[in-house]
Amino acid sequence: xxxxxxxxxxxxxxALAAWAAFAFRFGWLFLDFRAEFPLFFAVALVAxxxxxxxxxFTAATGGMPDSGTC
Length: 70
Description:
The protein has 70 residues and is an all-alpha fold. The chain is 71% helix and 0% strand.
């Protein structure tokens, strides 16, 4: 149950970071004239959360799974 709250916190942090990056770069009212923000926002959320989840899985399992070939 604790991991759900950490995932929610990660999603909120990534969302805030994506919004802040656009706001600082293009001004506070960037939503009025930057049509690419929704695509950037969606890609940032999916990419960052998948990378964070993958690195958490790797750390929890002690490394990469063994492929059986050496």
